Amino acid sequence: MLTPIRQHLMTVKDDEYAAFHRRLIPTVDPKTVLGVRAPKLKQYAKTLIDTAEGQQFLTDLPHRYYDEYVLHGYMLGRIKDFDECLAAVEIFCRMLTTGRFATA
């Protein structure tokens, strides 16, 4: 089932850009790269960060697509409260380094 966020990413993906981007990151499974351009991800992060859907996305780890991780990173950069941002970054980094979602 596609989440609304994933569905949106599917609608704004660029197949030519995905092919180009896959060559830049050969260690990432090519099937996980949708090819959403950074400006679109940044704009979407700005839209999502203050919504319940966006907050849920930040806790729904691990993500399926590389572009979702990039979106997640852009959203973390938009969190205004320092302590909240630090906690979210710690969870995200822990998940990235262990390959699984781990809470404090």
3D structure, described in words:
The protein has about 100 residues and is mostly helical. The protein has one domain (about 5-100). It contains six helices and no strands. It has helices at about 5-10, 15-25, 40-50, 50-60, 65-75, 80-100. Helix 3 packs across helix 5 (about 65-75). It is globular, with a radius of gyration of 14 Å. The model has no long low-confidence stretch (mean pLDDT about 90).
Relevant terms:
single chain, 104 residues, mainly alpha
Mean pLDDT, all residues: 91
Span between termini: 29 Å
Helix content: 55-70%
Strand % is under 5%
Coarse structural class? mainly alpha
Helices and strands, in N-to-C order? Answer: HHHHHH
Query: If you compute it from the alpha carbons, what radius of gyration comes out, rounded to the nearest whole angstrom?
Result: 14 Å
Poorly predicted ranges: none
Main sheet record: none
Counted by DSSP, the helix tally is 6
- How many domain units? 1
Backbone shape: globular
Instruction: Give a count of the beta strands, DSSP E runs of length 2 or more.
Output: 0
Task: Compose a concise summary of this entry.
By secondary structure, the chain is mainly α.
What is the strand and helix layout of this fold?
Layout: H1 4-12, H2 15-24, H3 38-48, H4 52-59, H5 66-76, H6 82-98
